[in-house]
Amino acid sequence: MFYKDIFLIDDSEPFCKSIQETLEDNGWSIIYNTDPEAGLAFLREKQFKVVLLDIRMPNMSGLDFLAELEKQHLVQRNYVIVLTGEITIENAVDSLRLGARDFIQKHAVVEYPDLFLERIEKGYAWQKERIENEKLAKERRRAIEESRLIVKSVGHDMSGSYYASLMLRLQTLQRKIESFKNEVEHCFDTIQNQNSTDTMQECRDRVLKIAEEGIEKGNGIITLMGFFKELGEKLKHLGQAIDIDKSHKKTVDLNALVKEAIHLFTDSQLVANPDVKLIEEYSSEALNISASEEDLIRVFVNLVENAFKAMDGKGNLTAKVYRENGYAIVEISDTGVGIPEDKIEKIWRPDYTHWAGKQGTGLGLMICKKAVENHEGEITVKSVAGQGTTFTIKFKLI
What we know:
Layout: E1 4-9, H1 13-25, E2 30-33, H2 36-45, E3 48-53, H3 62-71, E4 80-84, H4 89-97, E5 102-105, H5 106-111, H6 113-159, H7 161-192, H8 200-241, E6 250-253, H9 254-272, E7 276-281, E8 288-291, H10 293-311, E9 315-324, E10 327-334, H11 364-374, E11 378-384, E12 388-396
Parallel strand pairs: 1-2, 1-3, 3-4, 4-5, 7-9
Antiparallel strand pairs: 6-8, 9-10, 10-12, 11-12
Helix pairs in contact: 6-7, 7-8, 8-11, 9-10, 10-11
């Protein structure tokens, strides 16, 4: 990220060289420029931990230099220490007002070299804090955007198609119950009225037909309610996946964790899908990571469940666990329908589901991604439409 540790801008070449020698002797990398305009252009392209800036320079003073930094929105990322031969209250106030972080007289560099080095180290600490804050701000913005998408997606489903579907089925069921009531009353009237042309058999058939239709509509409602329950569970799991509390994590062997998750789902599914073959390859050594067992088992179960959906009852499901360059790697592969290339980036979004014609919340893979990232891991996917998909998850080994 940083091109060098220190960038010195001063019109005196001898002074620049002496400062360069002093700082390099302390193990810091430094470059200098005697032309402030060229230095300004360089700062637009490169970043440094500390910028040392002279005040009195021809063509562009240090104050003009700071004003340009502010104008070009570069002050926020630069720790500028004004280094000048003569100090005035006006210079100090103007420098700090324009975005300089510190102010040192040149003779103090000679008389108090340790203090000069301390002031530079203060700039290093400032940069470290700035980068950390920018990282947190970026994560916060991403979390807000993801939350917005989740709320929008879930709200659209709940208040849109699923709400409409549920209400229409309830209204239909209500009409069936009313028809059932009317037919039962009609049948009783038939029994009492000897002159009726309807037979008991005809009454019975009509009542049974209405009852069967009512049961069918009721089953549809039960299915929809199951979806709402699944959606609630997914939202709960999503909250757990992004939880920053690490107190529930412990040392676990990834081999055992993956094996437990695989068989938790596949033992019953393989019986129901005899044309699906399970292939397992585990590391011969323990691969210990810091993890929440519950969260990661949910990740692997979700990926295996997706693999079964993709293969639709026929194909190979492969689980591999191995060590590579200080990391524990898990690969979950299937020989199913695959994911089109233009859809790969969308699968992590909460408002997207790639199961054509199948019910889904669109949250499953997002939960997987968040849970893996919360374990300081990484999840990637490779897929070829019509051939299959491989999810790769990487964790740091303890």
